[in-house]
Design goal:
Four Helix Bundle (Hemerythrin (Met), subunit A); mainly alpha; 67% helix
Length: 138
């Protein structure tokens, strides 16, 4: 069964995270921006899953979440590429450098573009998402 109210809450936080990712990009907070890109897509996928009435898998792994959604293969691969940022952008022991030194403008610009493609895809599929977007600001 669909749960529009819950889906809307997940969507709102998702879109808010996207807006914050863009703000952090502007101030060169690239590691934070990368994390927020991952979070934005994760929450958007959860919103979609809830909206369609499917069972929500409580996971941070985007490859697990996309299994529940019919997506073009290229978009699916782009989404999955953001999974690493859940850990890599926050934990200094994941590599030999602290996260804020790993992320560059070019790297994060690509991540923001992926997020925008994902939102565009779902805006075309779901009028409610387009409507809910207008309610969010930072």
């Amino acid at each position: 069964m669909k749960n529009k109210k819950s889906s809307k809450l997940w969507f709102q936080q998702s879109y808010h995270n996207y807006l914050l990712a863009k703000k952090n990009f502007e101030i060169k907070g690239y590691d934070v921006s990368a994390f927020l890109c991952q979070q934005s897509v994760e929450l958007l996928l959860k919103s979609v899953i809830i909206y369609t009435g499917k069972e929500l898998d409580k996971s941070h792994y985007l490859d697990v979440l996309v299994k529940n959604i019919d997506l073009p293969e290229d978009l699916r691969k782009s989404i999955i590429s953001l999974t690493i940022d859940y850990f890599f952008s926050r934990y200094p022991d994941v590599s030999d450098m602290v996260p804020y030194k790993q992320y560059t403008e070019e790297i994060v610009k690509e991540k923001i573009e992926i997020v925008e493609k994902v939102f565009d895809y779902f805006f075309k599929k779901n009028g409610d998402f387009q409507k809910w977007k207008k309610e969010i600001s930072i």
